[in-house]
Structure formats: C-alpha cells, structure tokens
Amino acid sequence: MDQRAGKELRCKSTPPTLVDQLPLDTPLKSTSSSQRANEQTHDDIDERILQEVNKCVYRDTGGFYKKYFEGKQWSAEAEHTVQRVNPQVRGGRWTEYPAVPSQTAFLEWFRAFQINFLRGGCGLFCESPDLPLAGSDCKREPDLFLASPDAPKHNGKYNWADIRVTGELKKSEIRGEYTKELLWFSGHAREVFAAQATRRFLHGFIIRGSTMELWVLDRSGPYASENFDIHNDPRRFIKIMFGYTRMSDEELGVNTYIKEGEEGKSIVLDEEGREEERLYLEDKPITFQRTIVCKGTTCYRAKKRESERWEYVVIFAWRSDKRRAEGKLLKWAKERSVWGVAKLISHQDLESIADMRKGLEFRKPQKFRSASRDSIS
C-alpha cells in the first residue's frame, strides 16, 4: 500500500465530544504502541510487533544494493577504500575475516577495521551488546549501531535518539530462529522510531556468521536484500560498511524537512500561492506513535519566531494514497462553515512510500502463523 507523508498546520482547538462516539474507519488492532512502562517485556512487545509486521515483510528484494549503495557521491571514495583494504581471498575465505565469527571475535576485528578504514565520515560504529541504550522502558541492546561522532552519552549510554543504522550479529544461521531474530531486530527499529518520531526510514543489517542481509524499515514494513557471503564478496561488505558512514541524513532516512538551528527546530511553510513562513517547533512532540507499521502521526506545538505563545500544532503523518488528505477535508469543512473543526493554516504532501521504494522489486510478503491472534488491549 502506497503511503504519503504530509505535514499539516492547525490552530489548536478542542475537539467536540461527539468525535468520541463516531465509528473508527480503521479496525482496532493490538500493536506494539499499546504496551507501556512496566508492561513492556520482550515477550509482550515481540508478539505485538509480529502482528504488526505480518504480511508486510519482504526478503530477497531486487535492486536493493543498487538503490542504496551504487552511484552515490561517496561511491568513488568507497572504491578507493576497497583498494586500500585489498581483501585477499584464499580457499574460499577472506583471510582477514574472523575464522570463527562469534560476536566477540567479530567486534574485536571490526574495531581495528573501523579505525583503519572507516574514520572521517558522518557516523561512527559503536557497540552495546550487553548494555541497554537509554531512552526506552523496554531494555534492548543492539550489537552494533551507527551514531553521530559527536553524539552525547547519557550516564555512559548512547540514546536511541542517536541511532542512524542498527545491526545484529549472530555466530551462524540457526534453522528455525528467523522469526525470533526478525522480532529482535524489529524491536530495535521500534525504539528508533519512538525516539525519532518523524524518521522516514531506517537502515539495518544482520550478519549471521559470514552471511550478511541488509534491511530497510519504513512505515509500511521491513524489506531486505538478497543474502550474500562476505567471504565470497568482501568488496561488497567493505563498500556497505563504508557507505553507511558516508550517507547523508536524507540517505539514512532522517526527516530533513525539520531544520535544526541555534533557535531550535523549525519548518518552512512554502505552500504554493502563499508567502514563505517559518514556524518553530517545541523540542519534544506532544504525541507520537511507537508502532513501526502505522501512519506515524506525530504532533508538535509550534509558534512564530517573535511569539511566546505556542498557538499552532504541526502534524506529520503518512496516509494511504487511497485516502483524501486530511488537509483537503479540513478545507472542505471550512468552506461549509462546519463548527468545532480546527482551523487549517497550511497543508503539504512531502513524500510517498512509492517514491522511497522506487526501483525495487518485491516478492510475496511473508506471513507468520503465530501472528494470527488479534486482540485489543
């Protein structure tokens, strides 16, 4: 299902109580966002994540590597790095890669690899296999993740708000463990989307022994590349890890419509037919969704630069291309003098899932039998 991202600006208004009595146009479904605080155990959350991504997961996606790792501004530098590494393959093995790629062995090897070949980019790979990251009630420890080099630590921990790419390491591929690994991996993505509520998408990877699988997760679900063996193609591995450290915010899936400056976060209203105007957002959203597969509705209070009053609400949300934009519905209501409806100041369609996934070829989505239970909690 194609979805579009848009931002809508409204003056704050208290909705009429009648809204609470109207039928919902989307069936109620238990999702990972329904679990909070002390309820957030891995079992509870993982079951809901499985329900959420069921029939939304794609593997062996055609065109994945070409779309995200070829023809980039940093591609020539990546090729130069491959030449510097000069990987030697003997007897079907990359001689520098750990013979027994346990988590400990891989991380020890990769630390030196990063120091020698990946420094100087926009991100730095960090590890936290035994220490949960800050910023979440559900304790999760990503094995490897990319963070900004100047990201601050909170009581010795990185925060989920700092994550740019997430990775999981397994000693080998274990038959029957795929669903469990996917849930663990998706759980990390859930934390990123919760901490970075307007995130467009997230890159990630899973390394099982010497087999690597690349992932992207957006608000329509996760999709993966074809697997490849690092021993058979070490050049690809080097380009991928180098590429992650050189990707721009836009390539990494960060929301680039919100600008950061000395005066804080802001957006520019540049709707056709009106004068450009900048609004400043409160640091934290007043509401957001923790769920991965959803509209991703996120609301910020906003104000003009010279004002002290937070008199606007800015809404970021993804919508199905089969539904009318809410902004158009609000305009329609205004034209008909409907009482109690928020006043719309501006509305824009920014991006669509179809645009973000352009050039990819998808197979059939995966269906998980254990995700068939549907409940309201």
Automatic annotation (TrEMBL):
Bias kind Basic and acidic residues: ranges: 1-11
Biased composition (Polar residues): 28-38
Database matches in InterPro entries: Pkinase_fungal
Region annotation (Disordered) ranges: 1-45
Domain Fungal-type protein kinase: 142-371
PANTHER family: FUNK1 11 (PTHR38248:SF2), FUNK1 6 (PTHR38248)
Protein name as catalogued: Fungal-type protein kinase domain-containing protein
